[in-house]
Amino acid sequence: MWLGRDAVNQGATMATSLTNLTVPTGGTDTDVVIVGGGPVGTLLAILLGRRGHRATIVERWATPYEQPRAVTYDHEIARILETIGIDSESDPAVEHHEDLYYWKNAAGETLLEVDWCSMTEYGWRTRYWFYQPELEARLRHLADTVPCVETHRGWEAEELLQDADGVTLKGTRTLPDGTTVAEQVRARYIVGADGANSFVRKALGLPCEDRGYFFDWLILDTIPTVERTWSPAHWQLCDPARPTTIVPGGPGRRRWEFMVLPGEDPKELASPTSAWQLLEPWDVTPDNAELERSAVYRFQARCVERWREGRGLIAGDAAHLMPPFAGEGMCAGLRDALALGWRLDLILGGKADDALLDSYGAERRVHVQHYIDFSMELGKVICIADPDKAADRDRRMTAELAASDGTPVDTDIAVLGPGLWHESSPNAGALAVQGTVEADGRTGRFENVVGRGWVLLGRAESPADALTPEQAAALAVIDARLVHIGGPGSGAPVIDTEGTYGAWFDRLGVEFAVIRPDFYVAATAADAGRLRDRVDAVLRGLHLTTTAQRLSVPA
User: Fold this and answer.
1) Partner of 203 for a Cys bridge, out of 140, 160, 298, 330, CB 3.0 to 4.6 A?
2) How far apart are alpha carbons 374 and 158 in whole angstroms?
3) Is residue 138 within 8 Å of 131, Cβ to Cβ?
4) In whole angstroms, what is the distance from residue 291 CA to residue 284 CA?
């Protein structure tokens, strides 16, 4: 239920005079108020709403922003999006290319080859390309289909108050006729997914560490009007005269990114006349393309130290910014949403204490810092405008490529910071693989056939036989799936049809794996004894409530 500020301030007496007003148990209007209706905030609302929790999005802009920003995401984001029904292999807003990501110098020599085309052991390709306005429209539509998710546009957050029971967010909503109304919302928690200039981050007093990285780049998004093959599909021109990025912009679109050189006027460079002049050497003209957007962006690197203050949390660009050279900016925000979503689900469901939220920022900050550092290092290679320094770079990188075995560089993978995973377990804190399996007459990706959430996999024996009754009962409280998996002919109820899990277990030297709802490994174990010890450690890290602990007592 949404209340105007005046109605709330007059309390129960006023409430009785409002038509159809019902105040939920606990005196809150919603479970979680999310400031920011971009992809991060909307995904979080969908995840919470589908678990039966009330989520309210407040967005300052009255209408959606219909210009492209991010254009690419990786296998992990494809895995996340599939949890809400967006299939990156078949969705019309998404495409992929059977091509490497090449870095070339001004002479056309290859400096680096990155694998942006393979199918990974995580069940999805290394790289996908999409049109953000269309993807965001899909997310908004999905949010609209969830009964307990509300979205309020044209809503400017102005004041945030916290107490022991919840938060109160005050703001001003602009009506369609241009008039404004003071409103407020009462929630158990607030999440700021409100971008780089986050109101919530500032209101919570969460300082941001600036890495001192600033480069201005001109972004040109085009819509080709003539059928054409682009080869390579995605590549980096490391030319000191004008470092340039050439990539897809989603189905039917192309993007060029040009570094603004010292002494240039960014505003002048972004003018249509200048934009077409920069595109002309690439045979892109008004005769064969439309210029959809021309804008100069400042690439920056920064990260917040603390991601939580009491009942307030932040996610996405509110918590971190990175240069786009690794294509991981939006990816990091969507990871935030999933990591926060499953934690809030347990807390709102009364199964875990909110001490569980402390591991959110601790894990995510280290993970995202890896990609910030990685992106900055790529930028140091790309953003060289000095010819002598560029020549030194070219000699070094061509020599390194010649000395290599010719295998393209793999997609970079990060590990979580300290948190809810067992540090002594091989592969804990990293992503779990996802292979094709067969069970109950169905064949497909594990998460489509068996399900998602907490999963305990066992190969040598069923994990149900390896656990104590108390552990099995506690895992049942968090809806964990206990899965016995094996190769063809093993007799296991879930068949590892392509050997993905068998090879993974062999590589790690384990027989069991505990996988979290965000697909990261909480623990692995080589035998039942170590599994029991590590499951106990994971359960302690969940901060299960007294009620949940009572439910976990075996009958």
Assistant:
1) 160
2) 36
3) no
4) 10
